[in-house]
Amino acid sequence: MRKVLIAVAATLVAASPALANEGRIEARGGVNWQAGQSEATTGLAAGYDYDLGSSAFGGVEVSGDKILNSANNRVAFGFTGRLGAKVAGSDKLFVAGGYTTKSCTTCKDGEHLGAGYEHNFGPLYGKVEYRHNFTNGGAADGNSAVAGLGIRF
User: Fold this and answer.
1) Using CA atoms, how far apart are residues 49 and 61, in angstroms rounded to an integer?
2) 22: DSSP letter
3) Fewest Cβ atoms nearer than 10 Å: which of 2, 25, 96, 148?
């Protein structure tokens, strides 16, 4: 059994560079808007991307964004899946979808869909992303746009 475990571990170590899977963490800021109201946000996101061949990837992300309204102590939490293409070397163009908890003052919990782009700056990356937040329960849908700076590891 010990020999099998050593062989499996050695195989995973040898295959990891070829897979080039990567974790990432970012700081970001942006704006949410809905029905004529807008609110600034700031937050953090962490995720992990998996290679799906030489030009595609899939990933997962969790995020927490604080609404910067002095009367509001709410943090919107997002749970997102990503699917995209590697473009211009190691830049990434992606679509995203998942679930967000109350992303603005009058929003309700609900699903979100969006798209974004990440551009590499060495070990750092810059990111822009748009999300459409669907509300469940009759309230108007919301939108959000964020820009972020992160590091991959």
Assistant:
1) 9
2) E
3) 2
Domains and CATH numbers, the chain: 21-152 (2.40.160.20)
Residues 6+ apart with CB under 8 A from 64: 43, 44, 45, 75, 76, 77, 78
**What sections of 29-149 are H helices per DSSP?**
none
Which of 112, 101, 150, 111 is closest to 128 using CA atoms?
150
For residue 142, give both structure tokens.
């919301």
Where is 13: in which H helix or E strand? helix 2-19
* Residue-level pLDDT, tens digit, the chain, 153 residues: 444 444 444 444 444 444 568 899 999 999 989 888 898 999 999 999 999 988 999 999 999 999 887 677 788 899 999 999 999 888 999 999 999 887 666 667 889 999 999 999 988 999 999 999 987 666 778 899 999 999 999
Q: List all residues 6 or more positions away from 89 whose beta carbon is below 8 Å from its beta carbon.
A: 120
Closest CA to 34 of 147, 110, 128: 110
